Every structure is written in structure tokens, then in C-alpha cells.
Fold this protein.
Amino acid sequence: MWQIPDGKPTADAVAWALDAGYRHVDTAKIYGNEKGVGEGIRRSGIPRAEIWVTTKLWPTDQLNIRKAFDSSLGRLDVGHIDLYLVHWPTPGLVTRTWKAMEELYAGGACKAIGVSNHSIGQLSQILRIATTPPAVNQVKCSPFGFDPKLLEFCTTHGIVVEAYSPLTKGARLQDDRLRAIAQQYGKSPAQILIRWALQKGTVVLPKSQHRDRINENARVFDFAITAHDIDRLDGFAA
Ligand SMILES: NC(=O)c1ccc[n+]([C@@H]2O[C@H](COP(=O)([O-])OP(=O)(O)OC[C@H]3O[C@@H](n4cnc5c(N)ncnc54)[C@H](OP(=O)(O)O)[C@@H]3O)[C@@H](O)[C@H]2O)c1
């Protein structure tokens, strides 16, 4: 939900997405729209138990995690937070922050804890000291930029990869190679990028504040990209 203003624009986007079948809403304190996310969820009429809500800890709050978590919970006002992520690693504080996240989790505050933008080295530091390993690493991931070694590391260690900016923030949707593949499948470039991320085994987080695009981005379960074309897409990063 990055870059969607709080209030009605965010609440509309969330309610439209839930109506279209999405069940995961990703926000963060720093996006400034947790209130709108909560409003959209409440307005949707979808049972809370069917929705997965993620928000994130901003680095300046990492010495006071409980307070930051409770503030997010208050702004969301949806009963509970499902997944709480460390938004960015701070060198020197990676393991200390993780220990505090584990304390929060052990107290039953949320269903799962994880990280975002963490490298293999930082994940390894955490795994060495963790009682509860990160459930998730949320990272930038599209054919135009992804780290196969990080994906493999996460898979090996049972860490779910969530793909953010899967549509390249809209920047590469006109790429000729991507458009050619989209045309071949009778799909839009956005649908090809989302399908690629799904076939890579990631949990994909496309963002739109337009209802038609929210619907379009959900229509990705009626086709599959061949292994050959996945390889072609993988080559875009080179
Ligand atoms: N953990 C992190 O550090 C981090 C960083 C960045 C993002 N994220 C998360 O990942 C989510 C997605 O990433 P993102 O917002 O950076 O970018 P994105 O999903 O890659 O791209 C969003 C852009 O694509 C446009 N778009 C969406 N669907 C489209 C379609 N079907 N056709 C044409 N254009 C389309 C959107 O425009 P409209 O909205 O105008 O339709 C918007 O400009 C964020 O909202 C956030 O929840 C996390």
C-alpha cells in the first residue's frame, strides 16, 4: 500500500482488493496509511480471520518495539496484526532487534514475525541466534532485478520470500521484451510480472489504487508461463 494517501484512497483500494479476492494487505508505519487500511478492511465485510495484515517496524523505532507495534495496532484497529516485519536492517543492531521481535512474538502479539530488505549475511546472523527464525523476508523482486542466491537461501531455510515492487513501480511495463511475452500469452505486462513472481515461489505484493488495475492484477491464476519463457524473463535482469 506504499504511496497511497491515508483515508479514503487507501480504504477504497483495500476494499476493492478484498472484493476482487485479495486476502493479504501489506502496509507499514512509514507509509502513513495504516488507518485507511483498517477502514478498508472493516468496510469490506470480509471476516477478519480470512485476511492477513502485515505492517512493519521502522528503524528509528527498533529500540522501542512494543510501543511501535501498539501504535500500529491502534491505527489499524482491526483486532490484531498477523505479520510484523523489521522494515530495514540497521547494521550493528540486526540480532538485538530480532531478539526484541522474538519477545514480542512470544508474548502472543502477532501470528508471525519476519524481516524485509535483509541480505544473506544479515539473515545468517539472525539464524545463528534465533529461537524463532524469520517467517518472511520481503525484498524487491521482479525479472528486472532479483537475487537468485537470496531466493535459494530463503527457500533452503524455510523463509518465505515476499516480492515487493513486482511491477517495477510501473517503470518497465513498456519494455519491448516484456510486451512481446505478454502479447504471446494474451495477458498484460503487469499480469506476466505477477505470474513470474508466483512461479518463482514468492508471495507477490502488487500495488494499485485503481480498481480496474486491482482486478486485472488478480487475474493471474488462469495461465502458466512455460519454463522457457521464465528463463527469458530471468534474463531481463542481466
Ligand atoms: N518492504 C519494503 O521496503 C517495500 C518497498 C517498496 C514496496 N513495498 C510493498 O510492495 C508493494 C508494491 O510495490 P510498489 O508499490 O513499490 O510498486 P509496484 O507494485 O511494483 O508498482 C506499482 C505501480 O504500478 C502501477 N500499476 C499497478 N498495476 C498496474 C497495471 N495493471 N498496469 C499498469 N500500471 C500498474 C501503479 O499505479 P496505480 O497505483 O496508479 O495503478 C504504481 O504506479 C508496496 O505497495 C508495498 O506494500 C515494500
